[in-house]
């Protein structure tokens, strides 16, 4: 069953002869519990696709259906609630508030949604323990490594029990060891916790953790490739395909 589907999704900036299509009639679907990676050259529309699916920007044309609902048919306040409850976001630079502890950062979306602080802290604590940070609950971001900060961001994304996780270059600011740990954790998000994950990355080795790869170029969908679970072979396949774009 599809958790999210795009129909001829288009985003154009500018007008007339100066118009630039950041995304050009892209139609994709992601199933419940599926891990999908988006790859392509810089400026090909990867982040634009993620932002449109996440309700962070509005398309020029086309639709985004989340659990069958057209998210851009919603009013702004309804879309905000849907983002908080149905979609978890993970970014390259973590986007943690420096004055808050790990558990306070992870609990923040829940608190903003009107949940009592004690319950929000309890649920954030549970997710931080699941991502391996049970002993770092009261540490601020400057007391954590980059990989640990990204784990806090993943816990924050999962605290509201979303259906879909959107990850924009989640390993782009990490060394190779921490990158593999984060990619393995995202794999766990799908395999053990049943969430769909859509990840943008430029790294074939990290992309190979996914079930399927979507390749974009110049805002257009070029190809999709199913992976077979052999990470070394998959990484080579992804690298070859990416280099031909």
Walkthrough of the structure:
The protein has 245 residues and is of the alpha/beta class. The chain has one domain: Rossmann fold, CATH 3.40.50. It contains eight helices and eleven strands. A six-stranded mixed beta sheet has the order 7-8-9-4-10-11, with helices on both faces. A hairpin with a 2-residue loop joins β5 and β6. α4 packs across α5 and α5 packs parallel to α6. The longest helix is centred in the last third of the chain and has 16 residues. It is globular and about 50 Å long. It starts with a strand and ends with a helix. 44% of the residues are buried. The mean pLDDT is 91.
Give a short overview.
By secondary structure, the chain is of the alpha/beta class. The strands form two sheets. It has a six-stranded mixed sheet, with helices on both faces. Strands 1, 2, 3, 5 and 6 form a five-stranded antiparallel sheet that branches.
Q: Label the structural class.
A: alpha/beta
- CATH architectural arrangement: 3-Layer(aba) Sandwich
What's the end-to-end separation, in Å? 30 Å
Low-confidence stretches: none
- How many strands, which pairing sense, and closed or not: the largest β-sheet? 6 strands, mixed
Give the strand line-up of the largest sheet: 7-8-9-4-10-11
CATH class: Alpha Beta
Beta-strand level of the residues, as a percent range? 25-35%
Name the helix and strand elements from N-terminus to C-terminus, one letter apiece.
EEEEHEEHEHHHEHEHEEH
| Arithmetic mean pLDDT | 91
The CATH homologous superfamily is called: P-loop containing nucleotide triphosphate hydrolases
CATH topology: Rossmann fold
Radius of gyration: 18 Å
Continuous helix count: 8
Helix content: 25-40%
Apparent shape? globular
Structurally, the number of domains stands at 1
